[in-house]
Amino acid sequence: MKTNAQTQKTNDYKLQVLEVNKNFKNALRSTGKVIKILLSSEILTPKQTTILKSLQSKGNEAKYTKFDNMVRRTKNNEITAFYVLQALYKYMK
């Protein structure tokens, strides 16, 4: 049987780790948000960074729409960072 302290520890973990992770994943369900996170991570190559910044700039809505259409979706029509990276690879070719 769980003690009150164990229950509190489980609840804290759920709130501080599981819920934040769930919210973070949900926040990354659009191409634009994934691009922002990738750019802020500073782990991309200079060429990847240049292309993603150009897609974000004003006046390039057509390029962004074309890129967004290249991004694969899950069965639930969700986007992942991995799918955006795959589309970026294809876009750079």
Describe the structure.
It is built from five helices and no strands. It is mainly α. The protein has one domain. It starts with a helix and ends with a helix. The mean pLDDT is 88.
Core attributes:
5 helices, single chain, 93 residues, mainly alpha
Mean pLDDT, rounded to whole units?
88
Q: Tell how many strands the DSSP assignment holds.
A: 0
Provide the number of structural domains: 1
The low-pLDDT segments are none
The SS-based structural class is: mainly alpha
**Roughly how much helix do the residues carry, as a percent range?**
over 70%
Rg, Cα atoms, Å: 18 Å
Give a brief description.
The protein is mainly α. The protein has helices spanning 4-27, 31-41, 46-56, 61-70, 81-92. The chain has five helices and no strands.
SSE arrangement:
Blueprint: H1 4-27, H2 31-41, H3 46-56, H4 61-70, H5 81-92
